[in-house]
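G., the chain you wanted modeled:
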Amino acid sequence: MRGQRRDPASVVGGGLSKGPANDSSHPTLGPKLPLGSHLYLYPDGPTFGRRFPFRPRPIRQTMTQDKPLGILFDLDGTLLDSLADIAREMNAILAEDGLPTHDHDAYRYFIGGGARHLAQQALPENRRDQTEAYLDRFERRYGQNLVVETAPYPGILELLRTLRDRPMPMAILSNKPHDMTCALVDHFLDEFPFVAVAGAVDGEVKKPDPLAAAPLLGALGLPPERVLMIGDTKTDMLTARATGMRGIGVTWGFRDRAELEEHGAEHVIDSAPALLDLL
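Predicted structure as C-alpha cells:
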C-alpha cells in the first residue's frame, strides 16, 4: 500500500527543517521529518518471497536473456555524492572530543553499512563501546547539515529524466536512516516518480539482507530477475545476488571496480549514460 502524500521536508541553510511529530519520532533528532512522497516501507511485511522466490544469480550472467523492466537504485555514492557532508560532520564530533579524524578516502569505506557502522568505524577501538552515543550525536548534527555540499553526480538527473520518459519504474533502497533518505530524495529528486523509497529503520533488516529489498521489489511489481540493482559497493552487489536481481556496479561512487566485480557485479559502468546501453 502506498504511503499517502505528505509535504516534503524543506531544506534551510543546508539543514532540514523539522516536520510534524509522529509516532516514530527519532529520540535525538526531535520530531520525525515528514516521510517522502514516494514511500513504500514494508507495506505487507516480508511476504514478497512467496510470490517470487529469491534465486541467487550466477556471477556475470548475460544481460540479454531477459530485458530489464525496472531499476532499484542505491542512494549515497550512486545517485548523490554525500561524502563531504558525512565526513565533515563525523570529523567535527571526533575533533570536539580530541579523537583522530579521517580523510575522505577513509569515509568511502565507512559508508555503506548504515549510520551505526559508520560511527563505529570512525571511532578508535578503545571508544567503540560508546558507539551508540556517538551515533546519536552524528545523526543530530548531520541531520541539520544534509545538503551543504551534497549533490547529484554528473549525468544522474539527465539519466533519471530519460528513464522517467521511457517510462521505466524505479525505486530507491538505502542503508542511510530512513528519514534522511526520504528528505534527500524529496530535496534533490522530487521530480522523479519513484514507486518506492526506503532507508534504514532501527530493528529492521538492512542491505544486503534480501528481506530489505523485498518490499521494494513488491512495489515495482516485477520478478527480481527483471530488475537491475544499481550501486557503488559490495553491499549492493550482495543484495542483488541474494535476491536474484542483476547487480550493476558504478565506479563514480565510494568503492572501486575490483570490489564490485569481486562481489558479483554483472556489469560495471563508469558514467551514468552507460546504464542506458544495458536496457
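The chain is about 30% helix and 15% strand.

Shout if anything looks off.
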